[in-house]
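Lab notebook, design round three. We kept the backbone fixed and only want residue identities now. Task for the bench partner: fill in a sequence for the structure below.
Input structure tokens:
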């Protein structure tokens, strides 16, 4: 799931990226599920991972054709308030042009502070994961591509951010090499990446001062 703000590893360009399988080879159009409803059903059934709050939101999503903007916004608002109630000075949510949120990177504290933060974040994020995952999919991967690179490039194309000749294989290679023909700091580009579980931070981004 997306939503984690653990400090990503810095790359050679001085930017930071938080993602899994950065150089994955694009798939052949394989899907995560046959439909969004099918995907939601699987999340609802996974009671060990989803919370009661998430299942309530997802049931509404099934009835209404997807997670609503109101439920998505409320879910992130609950997370922010939960963290503030635990004593953190600020929680900054970066909002992208497509309406998605991702928490800003934070200035690390002492080992004791970080241990408490990790625990608090896990607690407060418990109600976010499944809701954010479905909403992000609606926005950034409505075809339900299972390959991250394929889903991101599809989002680029649907939003006219790259030419139709730009491929998932090309994007995967650019990620692996750290050299891009796209402007990765463009907020619409970043919105497509965040929608598919890839968060990169840059020097001009806000940084939370938690303590």
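Proposed sequence:
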């Amino acid at each position: 799931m997306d939503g984690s703000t653990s400090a990503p590893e810095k790359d050679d360009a001085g930017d930071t990226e938080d993602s899994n399988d950065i150089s994955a080879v694009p798939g052949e159009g394989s899907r995560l599920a046959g439909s969004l409803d099918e995907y939601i059903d699987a999340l609802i059934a996974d009671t060990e991972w989803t919370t009661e709050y998430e299942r309530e939101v997802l049931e509404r999503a099934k009835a209404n054709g997807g997670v609503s903007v109101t439920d998505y916004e409320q879910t992130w608002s609950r997370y922010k308030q939960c963290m503030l109630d635990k004593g953190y000075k600020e929680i900054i949510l970066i909002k992208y042009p497509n309406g998605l949120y991702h928490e800003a990177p934070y200035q690390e504290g002492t080992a004791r502070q970080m241990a408490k933060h990790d625990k608090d974040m896990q607690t407060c994020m418990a109600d976010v994961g499944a809701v954010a995952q479905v909403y992000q999919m609606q926005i950034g991967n409505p075809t339900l591509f299972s390959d991250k690179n394929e889903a991101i490039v599809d989002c680029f194309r649907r939003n006219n951010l790259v030419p139709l000749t730009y491929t998932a294989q090309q994007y995967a290679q650019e990620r692996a090499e750290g050299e891009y023909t796209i402007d990765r700091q463009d907020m619409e580009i970043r919105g497509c990446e965040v929608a598919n579980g890839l968060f990169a931070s840059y020097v001009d981004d806000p940084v939370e001062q938690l303590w």
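Keep this in mind before ordering anything: The two ends are 26 Å apart (CA to CA).
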